[in-house]
Design goal:
With about 725 residues, the chain is an alpha/beta fold.
Length: about 725
Amino acid sequence: MTNQLSRREFLAIAGVGTAAALGGAGLFELSRVLAKNAKLAGIESTVPTFCEMCFWKCGVVAHLEGSQVTKLVGNPLDPLCNGRLCPRGTGGIGSLYDPDRLATPLIRITKNGTATWEPATWDQALDLVANKLLAVKNKYGPEAIALFNHGTGGGFFRHLVNAFGSANVGQPSFAQCRGPRDVAFELTFGEGIGSPERYDLANAKMVVLIGSHLGENMHNTQVQELADAIGQGIHIVTVDPRFSVVASKSQRWLPIKPGTDLALLLAWINVLLEEGLYDKDYIVKNAIGLEELRREVSGYTPEWAFPHTGIEAGTIRAVARDLGAHRPGALVYPGRHVTWYGDDTQRLRAIAILGALLGSWGHKGGFYHPSKAKLPPYPMPAYPKPSRQAADGTADRFLFASEGVANGLRDATLTGKPYPIKAWLVYGTNLMQSLPNPKETIEAMQKLDLMVAIDTMPAEITGYADVVLPECTYLERYDDLSAPPFRTPFISLRQPVVQPMFQSKPGWWIARELGLRLGLKEYFPYKDIEEYLDSRLRRAGTSLSELKEKGTLTFPEGALYDSESAPAKFATDSGKIELYSEKLKKAGFDPVPKYTPPDPGPPGFLRLLYGRSPVHTFGKTVNNPHLAELQPENEVWINTDTAREIGIEDQSYVTLENQDGAKSMPVKAKVTERIRPDCVFMVHGFGHTDRRMKLAYGRGADDTGLTTKYKVDPLMGGTGMRVNFVRITKSDREVSA
């Protein structure tokens, strides 16, 4: 079971290793039989857990008939969902019973000169992985092993890799999503926004959304709060090249020219300062650098910003005045996916500075102070100190990154600098769609001695692995406890609703079994996950049995807002809000954000924008039978005038070709006046090329495949991905009846 290919080629898992292949009559038939037997027996039950359909982790109550899950509803005890789930949450059953899910461990072999998959036992697969990891360690050192992870179960694999002696851990959710926001607010206020975010939408009087499709991204708590706030008459301004759903709920829609957001933000700062609309008392008491800020933004007037942004000077000034009038309950919403143009940390710094000028940090309607349930960690020995620093660039290039940089690990693997990376563990993230320029990912994988993919689905990344380990879905497993900082402190439990199907296993078990084989028993001292969880919970004053019954426990709120008894505190070097950053200046960066016009792109091309759908979590759910029925494919939004010029009709199929010649699959055109004529938009996560995911294969277009260019944020390493341009041509494909 060795015979690794000299070149790591994509290898489909067709005909072996999936539930459809191993399930006889199929998993859906099995489900119907279970449901029929359960109904005859009249056995009904409920089990609380929490969701993994996205990162929000809402509390769920699963309804069962016998051993068949029939319905998922929100847990009324959970403060994240308040008893209500989004479409993805209710559709979690589709992931459990997806006929294409991975069902057995697989090992890549070469047989008669041809690459193929061989089903394996867990012992065979884990022994192989452990032996190869030890071989990499002996030859290159433990730091030659890197982990890419996403999701709750990734914590056990981070623990495994750190215990093994490597600091090379990266989550695409940082450098490809929220990282610039977190770093910008840390530089300004001394702490980040958190997840779930500390936005006080429930009490905001005004909110400005900049490229944030709140409602289409279905951050459950925030959508509920915004819906209630709309009913109370909140003033909404949406800045977006596209007339999104939330734009239709807004008092103003500002169809900004893509790439010029920082120009608009600096103009708002200019107006607040020049017209004295900022919170003077708050700034005098809590901030430093006001006069330096005033000097730096003096030239960024609304009149200057108009030709850059396309937003009239009078409108820019009017919005700034509205912000000043609604402070401190005026929230300039920083968003989440903010890796756009390469200047992203500085753009988010401008949003943080606006929040400071409005006095919204620590005030009602702005950013509240979250609190966290006291949940001690399980006693563990200290990790060994790696002999070499992380290879992702955080040690020397991306000095302000607060987490691992996934694309930095890919770069180190590709170049061998600062040292070789020879093994990847990839948990719960399809790097072919989460990292820009998939060609670079493929080239980096050719340098590996070992690649292991741990997933529930046969996503494209699994086709490049040497070993595929099938994890069971969140409805079949325990995971670590969820207790993030939030308005209401809480602890939530994920527990099995049904037993794991086929040969799938929970992530904690996989990580522990590998740890034992790697000689790391002292880092996995518990006999099973229940002992681990109960130990943590008893230290918190509760127990596993109590959480198993309720699913979520809440605790008293801390001080949400600043007051005389709870004054503002800032963990910056100065102990104040830093409007002008000496730390950035000393490192050679602009202490106040400066605007640089974006690349206009080649003539005849349109800027490619992308976003989310309310029924899908990017590519993670597009094969889910329940959710695919609601949205089987994405569309490309094209302005009506642009479509007329190139002869494209609504709902006809088109092909996109980017500036480097990369082409998309055929995708439907949505011809609309709801988008600027200089750009196009599509929902991310479609266009799968792997036939093993039968519902998702060939449906729509993959924007990542068109993202061959990206600009790296020099402060924290994030990849600005909205720097690609496409042209549109008709496709021969016809619309299905």
